[in-house]
Amino acid sequence: MTQPTRPSRSLIRCTGRAIGDFRMIREGDRLLLGLSGGKDSLTLLHLLLYFQTRAPVHFELGAVTIDPQTGLTDKRALIPYLDDLKVPYHYVSEPILERAEKHLDNHSYCAFCSRMRRGLIYRTAREHGYTAIALGQHLDDLAESFLMSAFNGGRLKTMKAHYRIESGDLRVIRPLVYARERQIQDFAHAAALPIQDENCPTRYGTPTQRPRMKALLAREEADNPHLFKSLVRTLMPLMSVGLDDVPQADEADAPGAANPTEAVVSWKP
């Protein structure tokens, strides 16, 4: 029988701080976790289960997996796992790959798939009365997105920590925005999480921009161990955009600051 696994203290601390800094979870929220079956979303699942029993507010938690019908993996293996954890689980299977092959060339597949997945997650959230969607992107992801946007798009942009979607009826939160990928990897390994293989066909083709940005950051961090602490401050104004009641860079302390805000204190382990 699967039981929730207590995450490491460092992961709890940085996740709780992000939730507090960006006012991610409110009283009575019904969160829908986008569960890909990778280490990031599975780690976030256990963090949210941990906070559900200790948070200063009451919130409900469910999960959704979008199966694009690639034929590479079958993530239905997660169904008994979520059942053991007593987390309501929505498994949505749609022929996204088939539709992409009919209408788009391979260069457009990633954007098409991402848009389709997002729409299906929104639809599931609305059908079942969820108020916010939780996604598992972490600090490394945000840093890579920032460099990709600056290098290739000529814009200073990254993923937002908390925002309301265009239609206004749902919010999106990313509680791992202060967490490093290696922290998540360590927990996923120690907890023996049931990580599912990636079912995206493009991962087997030509390397994308993201792995190159990851390699660049790794080289820079080898020479500057404090690189990501600096990047948090750089990214704060960009990840803070989205909601009027989310603090901007001059209102929220970066991780490790001496005087955490009142909201952060209440989310400490």
**Helical run tally:** 10
**pLDDT < 50 runs, ≥5 residues:** 249-265
Evaluate the radius of gyration: 18 Å
In the sheet with the most strands, the strands line up as 3-2-1-4-6-5
* Major beta-sheet overview: 6 strands, mixed
Mean pLDDT comes to 86
Shape: globular
Strand content: 5-15%
Q: Tell me the series of helices and strands, N- to C-terminal.
A: HEHEHEHHEHEEHHHH
Helix content percent band: 40-55%
> What structural class results from the helix and strand content?
alpha/beta
What's the end-to-end separation, in Å?
26 Å
What is the β-strand count?
6
Overview of the molecule:
- With 269 residues, the chain is α/β, with parallel strands linked by helices.
- The protein contains ten helices and six strands.
- A six-stranded mixed beta sheet has the order 3-2-1-4-6-5, sandwiched between helices.
- The radius of gyration is 18 Å and the shape is globular.
What distinguishing features does this structure have?
44% helix; alpha/beta; 6 strands; six-stranded mixed β-sheet; 269 residues; 10 helices
How are the SSEs placed, and which strands pair?
Elements lengths: L8 H13 L8 E5 L4 H14 L7 E8 L10 H7 L4 E5 L2 H8 L5 H19 L4 E3 L4 H15 L8 E3 L6 E3 L7 H10 L18 H15 L3 H13 L22 H5 L3
Helix pairs in contact: 2-7, 4-5, 6-8, 6-9
